[in-house]
Design brief:
Elements lengths: L14 E5 L5 H13 L3 E3 L5 H4 L5 H17 L2 E4 L8 H12 L4 E3 L4
Helix pairs in contact: 3-4
């Protein structure tokens, strides 16, 4: 049965989706760690091409972007990892999507 709403309950921990530039891989790992220790399920980017210098094709980028929107769909809320207030084009789209679907959005730094 499909869950009608993403609401943490006593039998299901909160789910948080991390968004932000993949150049901030270390920062995302630290936020993921802290949230996980707090008992929160974290979904986050799985490929950090900006941080690793990995080349990805335009097709792979589109697929990763679409997959990340599905991760937002799974989440109860979104946390944007934005050191120095940085928010790029992809992250801006993710924030707009999250807000349009009613997900609360918070930031690790003032935007």
């Amino acid at each position: 049965m499909r869950r009608l709403s993403n609401v943490a309950t006593p039998d299901r921990p909160e789910i948080v989706c991390l968004c932000g530039s993949t150049r901030f891989a270390d920062e995302m790992r630290e936020v993921n760690r802290l949230l996980t220790f707090a008992g929160i399920i974290v979904v986050a980017p799985g490929v950090f091409a900006h941080a690793t210098g990995e080349d990805i094709t335009d097709e792979q980028k589109r697929a990763l972007d679409a997959l990340h929107l599905r991760k937002i769909d799974l989440a109860d809320r979104v946390v944007v990892v934005n050191p120095g207030g940085y928010i790029g084009e992809s992250t801006s789209r993710e924030i707009a999507y999250a807000r349009a679907t009613g997900k609360p959005v918070s930031f690790t730094a003032p935007a």
